[in-house]
Amino acid sequence: MNTSITEAVKAHARANYGIKGWDIVVEAYSDSELAAEIGDASTAEEAIAKVGAVVGTIRDYEDDIRAEGGSGW
């Protein structure tokens, strides 16, 4: 696990809390889970894009459920 890239993603998540699902990273991801999402990203920017795509998809799913009258998770 590249600690500096993981820390950069966590810092980005904190700075963007409540925007496009980044709060999910702050609230729910352990370092090992975050490292799995980061995968083989070699830069912080690449890692942020990869994780952003995942949590953005999760947030979109939650929003769709709420729009249909569900409660999300």
Shape designation: elongated
Q: Helix-strand pattern, N to C?
A: HHHH
User: Cα distance, first to last residue?
Assistant: 29 Å
Main beta sheet strand tally, sense and closure: none
Average residue-wise pLDDT: 92
The count of DSSP E runs of length 2 or more, i.e. the number of strands, is 0
Structural class by sheet pairing and helices: mainly alpha
The amount of beta strand, in percent, is under 5%
Give Rg in angstroms.
13 Å
- Could you estimate the helical fraction of the residues in percent? over 70%
Whole-number total of structural domains: 1
How would you characterize this protein structure?
By secondary structure, this protein is mainly alpha-helical. It has one domain. 71% of the residues lie in helices and 0% in strands. The protein contains 4 helices and no strands. It is elongated, with a radius of gyration of 13 Å. 21% of the residues are buried.
Task: Name some characteristics of this structure.
single chain, 73 residues, mainly alpha, 4 helices
Q: Which secondary structure elements does this structure contain, and how are they paired or packed?
A:
Elements: H1 3-15, H2 22-28, H3 31-38, H4 44-67
Produce a short descriptive summary.
The chain has four helices and no strands. The chain is mainly alpha-helical and 73 residues long.
